[in-house]
Amino acid sequence: MEFGVVVFVLTLPFVAESIHFEVESGHIKCMGEDIKIDSMTVGHYSIVNPNQGHPLPPHHKINVSVYTPKGDRLHYAEVVESGQFAFGAEEDGNHLACISAIDHQPEDKIFVEFDWRSGVATKQWSNVAKKGSVDAMELELKKLADTIASIQEEMFALRLRNLEMMMINRNTNSRMGYLSLVSLFLCLSVAALQLWHLKSFFQKKKII
Ligand SMILES: *[C@@H]1O[C@H](CO)[C@@H](O)[C@H](O)[C@H]1NC(C)=O
Fold it and tell me: Kind and range of the H or E element at 69?
């Protein structure tokens, strides 16, 4: 008996679409799925009837095994037409599902539909589901809501202060401009007075 082994790897982190493939009698096909630790995974497989309305031929049966990355078997079904499995991953990595078609002469092709979904982190959900932790979360959320409200109030007050400061700033600026003009004028007139005073002083002393 000869087994042809074909491994094709699907690396879909969350939802894997159902896939279709064919296995020949006495052959095996494996499929890998990268599963994160603690995530829930659910698989469903069934043989597709090639002749709708007719019963499946008796040799259309499969053996199914699912393995952890380390090689421990998580699921096993023998000589079945369909089945399903579900487990929470205890290790990170590529989990393998192998489907073999039972031996038959002459060789026949068996069409299999395989749906493997994973990605729901079980640990987080089981924590959320506990009544006590829901209450604790509610309390935390209320505290957060209070904090947000007080931050909002503070921001509003700050905006008001900012507006006041801007008004004061504008007034100060215009006053400063006015004052500097006045002081310039004063300086110029004092200089003119000094000049005039010195000139008359020297004229009186007959120096000029
Ligand atoms: C499937 O399981 C049956 C029952 O154990 C076994 O006889 C048969 O060899 C298996 N077929 C394949 C292809 O592994």
Answer: none
